[in-house]
Amino acid sequence: MKHLLLALILLVSFPALCQDLAVGQPLPAFTVSNDQQTIKSLDLKGKVVLINFFATWCGPCMQELPQMQQLWATHKSNKNLVILVIGREHTQSEITAFKAKKGFELPMYPDENRAVYSLFATQYIPRNYLIDAKGNIAYVSVGFEQGEFNKMLSKVDELLKQQR
Predict the structure, then answer these.
(1) How many CB atoms are closer than 10 A to CB 139?
(2) Residue 5 falls within a domain, yes or no?
(3) Mean pLDDT in runs of 10 for the chain (164 residues)?
(4) What local confidence, expressed as pLDDT, does residue 21 receive?
(5) Is residue 12 situated within a structural domain?
(6) Is residue 6 part of a domain?
């Protein structure tokens, strides 16, 4: 009977342990590094942060990344916005080759073993998390759809206006 009760408790608890992060939850602690810099999530407090998870083989990611490049180019001098583009299951050398091939200039960070991605989700890309200046998730999107991306851009603008 004890084993049955334990199995039931684990069965009921397991989905809660595997859920993706949602709006209102705090940004988890993590570190990302590329060949240029290391960024710790704890150092991002007080800034608006957009985290994008992608893969080089992902069709929807290829639709979204040029727009991420444009967003980064528009805001790269804005000290109140940090854009982290993280390559799920990619090495630094893969990221470097991909950027050169596609002509991307925005910083990208490898997450070879899903160490960072697993703190946010269990599956599906592209995936975006917009974090407010208090360190809480303000917006989440999964997949790419232009209307949804535009909503995210509006939310970025809204959060940046609150910084002024």
Answers:
(1) 19
(2) no
(3) 43 46 93 96 95 97 97 96 97 97 97 96 95 96 96 97 85
(4) 87
(5) no
(6) no
Strands (E), the chain: 31-33, 38-40, 48-54, 81-88, 108-111, 127-131, 137-142
Q: How far apart are CA 134 and CA 124, in angstroms?
A: 26
pLDDT at position 10, please?
A: 37
pTM over 0.85, yes/no: yes
**Residue 41, domain extent:** 21-163
Contact, 87 vs 55, CB < 8 A? yes
CATH code of residue 125: 3.40.30.10
- Token pair of 7 as six digits: 């199995």
Residue 47 belongs to a domain: yes
pLDDT of residue 1: 53
Q: How many domains does the chain have?
A: 1
Query: b/e string for 22-58 if b means 16 or more Cβ within 10 A?
Result: eeeeebeebebebeeeebebeebeebbbbbbbbbbeb
